[in-house]
Amino acid sequence: MTGMLDGKSALITGAGSGIGRAAALAFVREGAWVAAADRNLDAAKATVAAIEAMGGEAVAIACDVTDDAQVAAMVAAAVNAFGGLDCAFNNAGVAPYQLNSAGVLTADLEEASWLGLIDINLHGVWRCLRHEVVQMRKQGGGAVVNTASILGLIGSGGAAAYVASKHAVVGLTKAAAIDHAPENIRVNAVCPGYIETPMTEETVRRRGEALMARVPMARMGRPEEIAEAVVWMCSDRAGFVTGSCWQVDGGYTAR
Ligand SMILES: NC(=O)c1ccc[n+]([C@@H]2O[C@H](COP(=O)([O-])OP(=O)(O)OC[C@H]3O[C@@H](n4cnc5c(N)ncnc54)[C@H](O)[C@@H]3O)[C@@H](O)[C@H]2O)c1
């Protein structure tokens, strides 16, 4: 049996929790070596321990994606650990409530909340992407997946900075895909719907029933269901797929 990512090295941000951790485990299952990066090093180490328990190989890296020097060092550490970088999953992100802005109307947002969220969810993806692409171009190619959201495709109330950041990740993904296609580097995005992770616990408590009423499949997604799409987009099976933004949302955006 061969895995979809046999012999490939992969870097995942936000790998200490939720979608990032599920992706790290799925990448290893498919034969990849994983550099698990997170601003919470203990969480990244717990992901590495889970990988080692399944017989895989991984390293934990501390990195806050708001700091370009840390991002550069993260990419260098991943390359150093595995001799190159074939795949990258730029997934670290925060929800509005983590910057005190859940439910705040656009005109009432504090500038610090706006800037803080955009710095992580948009600028963080761009910082990672550019350092990864510089490495991949040296190697003759690679595959990048960015985490956007269904809120990168449609609007939602009380979440302007988040919605703007995720729409921008979709735009960045398309622009980077066009720029780097001649260098054999594919850039795609995944757009998750509502997924069971620590990020959504609070939202589900407050208005889970109302949200589920809008999902055709009438349930939350599991982080593993996002991971499967990311694995595929990073694999050679997706060789002609670039600049695409793939909803994995139980039908939410089909309405
Ligand atoms: N859960 C959902 O329903 C959902 C839906 C759509 C999109 N997303 C997106 O998926 C991604 C992962 O979310 P999740 O649900 O797994 O959340 P999560 O909170 O479980 O995990 C996010 C991880 O990112 C890390 N992180 C946060 N800020 C960071 C920073 N500045 N630098 C480095 N690491 C940082 C956290 O420490 C955490 O380990 C996010 O980009 C989120 O916006 C989630």
TrEMBL record:
Q: What is its EC number?
A: 1.1.1.47
In terms of InterPro entries, this protein maps to:
NAD(P)-bd_dom_sf, Sc_DH/Rdtase_CS, SDR_fam
Q: Which GO terms describe its molecular function?
A: glucose 1-dehydrogenase [NAD(P)+] activity
Q: Which domain of life is it from?
A: Bacteria
Q: Which keywords does UniProt give here?
A: Oxidoreductase
Residues that span the membrane, as ranges: none
Per its UniProt record, what Pfam families does this chain match? adh_short_C2
Q: Which Gene3D superfamilies match?
A: NAD(P)-binding Rossmann-like Domain
Q: What class of enzyme is it?
A: oxidoreductase
Q: Which family does it belong to?
A: Belongs to the short-chain dehydrogenases/reductases (SDR) family.
Q: What is this protein called?
A: Glucose 1-dehydrogenase
